[in-house]
Amino acid sequence: MGNTSSPFRPWLVKLPLKLHSAANLLLLLSSSLFGFSSCFGGSSIAVICGWIFAIALANFFSQVKKPDLVLLWLTGLLLYYSSGYWIVEVISQFTNCSFVTALSLSFVLFSLLALQFVFCGLLVRKIDRGWIARSNLALPISWLLLELFFPQFFPWRLATGQLAWQSFAIISSIAGLPFLSFVMLWVATRIVNRQLKQLATSLIVFTGMLILGDQMRHETEKTINQSPTLMIGMVQGNIPPEHNAITASNSERLERYQALSASLLKSQPRIELLLWPESSSGHDYPDNVKSITRGSIADPLPAFDVPLFFGGETLYQRYDDKSSNDRQYTQYFTSLRLLEPDGQISQRYDKEIRFPFVETMLPGWQYINPRHYQILRGDNKDAITLPLKESNLTNGLQIVPAICYEDLFDSIFVSQLTNHSVEGMPAVLVVASNESWFLSSAALKIHHGLAAWRAVETGKYLVRITNNGLSSVISPLGETVFTLPVNQEASGSYAVPLLRQRTLFSKISFTTIPSLLGALLISLFPIAISNRHETRGSLLKRKRRNRKDQA
């Protein structure tokens, strides 16, 4: 008989042995569990699953000197698919492509994102020496740097599931969410190494952090109770995704929001600011428009004098694209505007972070998703200030806006609070989104859970108004204190406390923290590996001496 062996046979035989390892199996299973727990963000389930995954990750790196990079890649792939299984349907719906194409695109996307785990393994190999190894800091430092610098489609963190543990979560207002991930892995590494002295030290430090966090939580509650409030109205139109594009359905969409707003304002006359979600207006406002005539066709809410913060496109340029069969080609910004009672709409926010594959065009993407428009990137230089003449807030209120996907990025809010804030002026975070493309309820909950951290980090209330849910108000403690029903036409109001205090995290420019950590790593890396070079050098010297003695 001929030789029937395959060149892949050694790898196929070896793989089951790897998977049968207890540490490897625990890592793979815990990553899936951690991914699924993202659907329960803000619950004790997510807290427990996050710590299980942290311990499994630390245990995996403690078992081997050279971590299996393929297994780490599979771990990342399982985590992303268990938490983002819905992305296949969203891609298919949003880009109007086949299920097979959407599945292929999701695999490419998740495969690239899973490289974060691979790079973590490579970095641990490099720095796990000297005092870093003795202090069990190789994995926490490596993971921290990758959370800060590795590009993320949905920027999740290891600590995102800890929202329900308020005394721990509120520490993110000091140094951000990546710092909590660092702490989790540092404690987990000490637990799996089972060195009593190191474990006791880490538990003492961790307990001190919780005591500090508990004190911060009580201070935040006290500040909330003593702060003035702003009555905010929220309108959720629940427009189906097939009517969200710029089509003839614009008038029907606008009429729905007008009717819901009129009903809300009549039942709640104390409303001081009305919020509509992203792309709720049926008009393309020119880039240079500064005001509108109240009651005209361009007025989104005639007959009412309450300030309206609403979403709508800003037309930048329209021309005929000869390469597209002479059809009109449009460039525009996705914007939010503040319409004041006198018709002024000079204050505008343009979306800065555009959704990948949909609002940005990658090379070759036009063949998969052909279109005849371009969404431009915003460059916001001015703060949006709401005058409050009837209150004691003489300087008014700062609205810190974001659109849709941007609420996942803390840099959007921190940069505005750092660059545009007036000393002593209260602020509220406002996110206008259109969640109808995220057809799965799991996607809505995951997005909501990730965005809730912006309230904790900045110490401000976060108001999320969406087209179909989850429209909500989130406190600086991460609690969802008000919601509108999902996938329904709905409206409601809530008295939002206006907080003046600034957290340490929101006082420091976002770009400063990664720069400092990067510089710290660069400075510490030579020290960490110096012990290795010294040992190697002394060994070579001994060999040279032995050769001379033998000669």
Could you describe the largest sheet, including whether it forms a barrel? Answer: 8 strands, mixed
Q: What is the CATH C-level name of the largest domain? A: Alpha Beta
Average pLDDT, all residues = 82
**CATH topology (fold) name of the largest domain:** Nitrilase/N-carbamoyl-D-aminoacid amidohydrolase
Instruction: Assign the CATH superfamily of the largest domain.
Output: Carbon-nitrogen hydrolase
What is the number of independent domains?
3
Shape: globular
Structural class: alpha/beta
- Regarding quaternary structure, what we see is single chain
What is the CA-atom radius of gyration, in angstroms?
Answer: 27 Å
Task: Set out the fold topology.
Blueprint: H1 9-19, H2 22-37, H3 44-63, H4 69-84, H5 87-95, H6 99-113, H7 115-127, H8 130-134, H9 138-149, H10 166-169, H11 172-175, H12 177-193, H13 196-226, E1 229-236, H14 250-267, E2 273-275, E3 284-286, E4 308-320, E5 328-339, E6 348-350, H15 365-368, E7 373-375, E8 384-386, E9 397-403, H16 410-419, E10 427-433, H17 441-458, E11 462-466, E12 472-474, E13 480-483, E14 490-497, H18 504-507, H19 512-550
Parallel strand pairs: 1-2, 2-4, 3-4, 5-7, 9-10, 10-11
Antiparallel strand pairs: 1-14, 4-5, 5-6, 8-9, 11-12, 12-13
Question: Can you walk me through this structure?
Answer:
- It is a single chain.
- The chain has helices at 9-19, 22-37, 44-63, 69-84, 87-95, 99-113, 115-127, 130-134, 138-149, 166-169, 172-175, 177-193, 196-226, 250-267, 365-368, 410-419, 441-458, 504-507, 512-550, and strands at 229-236, 273-275, 284-286, 308-320, 328-339, 348-350, 373-375, 384-386, 397-403, 427-433, 462-466, 472-474, 480-483, 490-497.
- It is of the alpha/beta class and 551 residues long.
- It has 3 domains: 9-222, no CATH class; 227-507, Carbon-nitrogen hydrolase (Nitrilase/N-carbamoyl-D-aminoacid amidohydrolase, 4-Layer Sandwich); 511-551.
- Strands 1, 2, 3, 4, 5, 6, 7 and 14 form an 8-stranded mixed sheet that branches. Strands 8-9-10-11-12-13 form a 6-stranded mixed sheet, with helices on one face.
- Strand 5 (328-339) and strand 6 form a beta hairpin.
- Helix 4 packs antiparallel against helix 7.
- The protein is globular.
- The model is unreliable at 1-17 and 527-543 (pLDDT under 50).
